[in-house]
Each structure stands twice: as structure tokens, then as C-alpha cells.
Amino acid sequence: MKLADNKATMSFSNGSPSVELPVYSGSVGPDVIDIRKLYGQTGMFTYDPGFLSTAACQSAITYIDGDKGELLYRGYPIEQLATNCDFMETCHLLLYGNLPDAAGKAVFTKRVTQHTMVNEQMQFFLRGFRRDAHPMAIMTGLVGALSAFYHDSTDINNPGHRDISAIRLIAKLPTLVAMAYKYSIGQPFMYPKNELSYAGNFLHMMFATPCEPYVVNPVIERALDRIFILHADHEQNASTSTVRLCGSSGTNPFAAIAAGVACLWGPAHGGANEACLNMLEEIQASGGVSKVGEFMEKVKDKNSGVKLMGFGHRVYKNYDPRAKLMQETCNEVLAALGLENDPLFQLAKALEKIALEDEYFVSRKLYPNVDFYSGIVQRAIGIPVKLFTGIFALARTVGWIAQLNEMIGDPEYKIGRPRQLFTGSLPRAVLDISKR
Ligand code: CMC
Asked: Which residues contact 3 (CB under 8 A, 6 or more apart)?
């Protein structure tokens, strides 16, 4: 970042002296006002719940232009990455800053595949969960538990530990998600098959059984790989900021990523794909496309508490570029599986059409986000709805770890410690219990 030509001057109506604040420019995007010395100079904090105007860090990983609907990983447009690269190349890009050549890709892929198995003891930990536990509850526990199984990579200040924990996390997340699924349906766990691709291996661990050979469908494999690419990173969203904040205390990488998994679970964030599919299924059960108008009236009624899941985004005030790619993948997968007339897909298209023309959505700049179509693709692939957010977590792991490692390497990083506007009671004395 460089000091911009201008400075910001903050003046006060109560006659307190004004203060000058440095302004920095990034390579692209809005400038930022450096307020780090504001408290020291004025005794005042800034107030920004929800971080609507606060840049909490500098980062060179992902850039979003929400008005244009643009998403870049390390400068590369998501459309080109999703079309020309696979997830392993994308992981390399996010972690190390460059797209690998063929030899670099082979080395990186080999490193990842060498770590796909998990410590055998982990299955006994998993077996302690109820069979009907939500996969995200299991994932939060399992990812946190990795720190108990891989002691030799838990020092966040050691670059070697950070590197090996990154590879371990990327390699083991698919294994853990598939184990959580197999456990829920009472099937034996399938060990990873390292001759398969990252996505192909995940499909194998999810859908193969020891009894019969399993052949990976290349259309599904490519679709899943694209889902992974589209979800790999998204700048300083809630779960990434959670990972950074958690990691800023110096905790180990597995614990920090487990915090990200927990945050992602929420329906306003990663849980939206599950919530979106549940919403579509409910509308379908209540009468399908003919009930879309009625449902939309509820969405627009502030008192109903109903939201159109898969719509709206804090940053995108235009079509989420990932949603366009996901819709394309949706068409491909449904065609390959002979499900073009899938009623939920028809319903989603009807909802989207109405929303894109409706004044309520147009005036608020609410467009479909990535989750609007990803649930339909995953359901067509055979992934149960409850596992959708787990798939999102496995894909986002590389982004979390890249952001965490970037933070640790940043000389300006400090433990995250927001301040507050206190509105509670002034000091008061504790009365004896008989007098309260
Ligand atoms: N349905 C109906 N109204 C909406 C929706 C929606 N999905 N999203 C926003 N609004 C309204 C909101 O009520 C508000 O209206 P008003 O100005 O009249 O009060 C206005 O649009 C602005 O919304 P906001 O809640 O201030 O926006 P936000 O930036 O705080 O929230 C959001 C962003 C993603 C949490 C929200 O749009 C939402 O809840 N969407 C549904 C959940 C969803 O699909 N989440 C996935 C996000 S993409 C995947 C990921 O990155 O995790």
C-alpha cells in the first residue's frame, strides 16, 4: 500500500482540535483512512458494527468489485480460473501467489495427495457423535481435533509448520466430510484413492462402497471441481475474518480453521446453500411455481421474517459472477444426468426471473449469489442437503489458510481487539442479597 496524495482531516463541532489522518491506496479499489492513531490523538473510537466501512487488514489475495460483479483471485478473473484451471492450480495460486506450470502443479498435487488419509484414531473420535448430528457440528469438532492429532504442525509462528498444516488441511478436509457422510448413513468409511483427482477422490470417498467398483463421472467431477474453485476464497467475509481474528491470538492453524467452519455454518453465510434448497423444497411442496408470487409477497413483507435465500450480498450490488458460472454448471450437470426438467431448477429460474424484475429487489440491488444454484447442482450429484455447507467448508479451507498465513507474515499484524461504545450501567455497589 502507498500513501495517497490526500490526507483526511477530521474536525469536531464541539471545538476539539481537528486531526489529520493518512490515506492509503491499494492497487485497485477504495482508498482507506488510517485511524490507528485516532484514539491516541482524540480519545475517541470509530463505530462500525458489521464492518460496513472498515478495512481490517491489507491483503493481496482476493479482490471483489461489488458494483461491477467482478471477482479476482490474485488478479485472475474467476471466469478464467473456472474455465481454464482446476482446483489444485487454484489452491497453488491462492497459497503461493502464482499459477503453477505443469511440473509445479504435479509437485503440489503430489504433496496434497500424500496427506489425504487421516490418523486412524480419528474415526473413533467421529464415532462419538450421534449418527443424526449435523455434519457441520461434526466438522467443527473434527477440524479442531486435527490439532490433537498433528502436534508437529501447530506452531503458527513456524513457517514450516504453517506450510505443512496448510497442505494437511486441504488434503484432509474431503476425507473428513466424506467420513461424516458415511457415518450418517451407516456405511463403511472409504479410504482415499490417490490416483484420482481431488474432486474425483472426494466423489469416490462419498459414493463408493467396498462391495462394488465405482467409476467417477467426468461431468460430475468437473462440476464439483468448479464448485470448489468458486468457493475457494472471498476476501474478508465473516468466516475468513473469524479465522484471522482467531489466528491473531497465536492459536494453532487447525483451531483457527475450526473457528472458520463454525462461522460458515450460519444461514446468512455458508449455510445459505442449505437454507436455499430447503426454501425451494418448501415452495415446491406447497404447490411449486404457482406459489412463487405468494412466496415473494412474504419475502417483501418485513414482518414475515422470510428472506429469499441465495439472494443478496454484502459486497455484490450486481450479479454475483460465481452465480453465473454456477448456473452454467447447473445446466451441464442436469443435462448430463437427464434432469433438465428438474422441478426445483424450474422453480429457481421462476424465482430468479421475478426477483430480477421486481422493484423490491431491483431498488435494493439484490441479485442471485453463488448459493442460489449450487444447492441444485449438489442435490443432482447426490449430495444430501445437510452436507452442502460441509462442501463449502472444504473448498473455503484453502482461502482461510492462505489468508491466515498472509496475516502471520504481515509485519503490521497484531492481535485483533475491537473496542466498543459502552451503553451499560455506571459503576454501582453490590447490595447485600437481602436488600436487592
Ligand atoms: N431477501 C429479501 N430481502 C433481502 C435479502 C433477501 N435475501 N437480502 C437483503 N434484503 C433486504 C434487507 O431486508 C434490507 O432491506 P431494507 O433496506 O428495506 O431494510 C436490504 O435488502 C439490505 O440488506 P441488508 O440485510 O442490510 O444487507 P447485508 O449486507 O447486511 O446482508 C446478506 C447481506 C447476504 C446477509 C443478506 O442479503 C441475506 O441474508 N441474504 C440471504 C442469505 C444468503 O443468501 N447468504 C449467502 C451469501 S453468499 C455466500 C457467502 O458468501 O456466504
From this structure: 22, 23, 24, 25
